Every structure is written in structure tokens, then in C-alpha cells.
Amino acid sequence: MRTTGVVGLKRFAKGLLLAAVAMLASLFVDEAWAAAARIPVRVVVVTTFELGQDSGDAPGEFQYWVERLPLTQTLAFRVGQRALRYNAAKQVLGIVVGSGSINSSASIMALGLDPRFDLSKAYWIVAGIAGINPNTGSVGSAAWAEWVVDRDLTHEIDAREIPADWSTGLIPLTRSRPFQDPPPPPGIFSPNAYHLNSGLVDWAYKLTANVQLDDSADLQAIRAQYVGQPEARRPPHVMKGDEVSANDWWVGALMNKSAEEWMAYWTGGKGISATTAMEDCGVIHSLQLLSQARRVDAQRVLVLRTAANYSAPAQGQTAAELIASESSSDSATHLSAYIPALEAAYRVGSPVVDTLSSNWAQYASRLPSAAP
After folding, report:
1. What are the structural domains, with CATH classification, of the chain?
2. Cβ-contact 61, 342 below 8 angstroms
């Protein structure tokens, strides 16, 4: 009886072991199947807003990509701002993240954690409109950023109360004066500056440097007001230029100067303050966190901002007059170079998207670089 009981127990244990092995095997098979079934993505085009429908009406940042790339397939995205769009042949995904860093960070995190997509090797291209510093660029132009600096993480004193020898009321957190050296080390308020992969940025710039951008009599008239500022008077062109990102839409000569100093402070003088936007720190920071979980590769990020308006007034114009001229309606369409900026975003961004997608065997495992 005892021998029979032991044998039976062994058989029972062996059965349990075989069942456990079978269950684990099925789990691995299911996981492998799920990975194989994920929608492959080579490039994600990130835009920040759309005005109405995805196509056929007044355009926002998303519409030209939907209509021209095209992004024909609609994919539900219930936790996002609106539905995603996809091109299955090119394996390109498009998203509207919403305005401001709070919306952009939530949208990117939601997409990065969406189990439907394989984003592990995807390239991310932010393609949006922006303000342009008249000291470094002109309306209708397109700027590839290597540095994106956060201007929101600050102490701030009202300009009417700042000491007479201060150039701004913005002060780095943990510091007591503007631009106090050394810059704060990484801590609970970091990061303040994001440095994108320089080789990838240089490659994108080199690929698109000769893209022709539209000029017009309206753009020429706007530029003509910027007497004594040669960069502001140049016809639209592709350039390298960095971004100061903030959730407030600031304008004015003094705030423009402050942005230039803020850029220089956080980049050790390496960055060039060119564009102003709201969303990109949220986008990049979310991608960096997702990269820690190996959901994405944060080295595969590009930021392209195109100039819809100037961030500082022309000669003889006040800051209040500038903001009044650029804020005449509830829509972004009032911006002085709105349509040229939308056009430039697609015209400059799409060659990069197409090149990455069509040469996937080359770029899936190796980042492109302008270096010989």
C-alpha cells in the first residue's frame, strides 16, 4: 500500500509538473504571438493640434500628413486627443498630442504603453509650428533642434518687482539670481535641458537643407518690418536652431532676450535660441521614461519646428501690438505665417519620414548620421 501510494504521488507530481510546463509554454507562445501581432511602426509623426476634421477643411498641423503621406487608416485612441492615423505600407503612425506639455506628455505616454504597437525601433518626428526669434530666423522657415530647453521650471518674480540690475524675473529653481552659476545639478526639478542625438539631427538637416520653401508678398511684407535684423529678413529656409519650450505664449524683445540667455545658460553656450513652442519637453521626457522600460528608443527623436510668427516685435512696434496682431481670433489660423509654416512642416519633415521608412533594412538597427 505504501509503495503504491508513493508511486501514485510521484505520478501526480509529474502530472502537475507537465501541466505547469505546458501552461508556461502556452504563455510564452501567447506572448510571442502577441509580439508578432503588434502593429509595426517605423516612424511616428507627432503633431500638436488639428482644427476640425483630419482632412478636407481648414488645416491644422495634422491635416497635410493625413492627406499627402497619406495616413489613410484610422485607429481608435480613446485615451488620446483624437484617433490615430496609420500608413500600413510605410508603417508610419500619426498622432495629435494636444497643446501644452501636460497634454503632450499624457498622449505620448499613452501611446508608448499601448499594447497594439511595436514602437521599439520607431523614430519620432515632432512636426509643428512655432514662434521664431527674429535674431536667428524668419517666418516661413523650418528649424531642426538639437537642444530643447524647459523654461517652465523656474522661480518667477513679476517684472515690476525685479531688482534694477536683473535682466529678467526668471530664476532657476534652487538659485537666488537669474543665470546664477553653476546651473543646478540634476535633482527633483530636472531636467531643464534635453539634448537630442546630434548625429541624427545633423543627418536630418543635411537631407533637407536644400528643400525649397514658399515665399510670398505677405511674408516679404512681414519681414521688411524687421529693419537691421538680417536673419529676420531672409526668405524662408531650412536651418538648425534650438527651442525654448514653455506653456505660456510669451512675446516681446525683453522676453526674447531672456530666452536667448536661458538657452545659453542651460546648454553651456552650445544652443541657439531659435524657436518657441509648448509641447516638446513633455514629448521628449515621456519618451525618455518609456525608453527606460525599453518600450521606445529615446535616441530616435527629432524636433522640427516651423515659424508661424515672430517672438519679438519689429522696429516701431510694441510687444502689446505684436500680440494683438497675432491673437485676433480663437484659432491658430490668424498667425501671420500660419499656412506657410504648416506647408514647411510637411515639406521638410516628409523627406525624412520617407527616407527612414523606405530604407528600413538600413535604419532599423542603425541610426543615420551626417558623419562620413
Report:
1. 37-149+190-363 (3.40.50.1580), 154-189 (no CATH)
2. yes
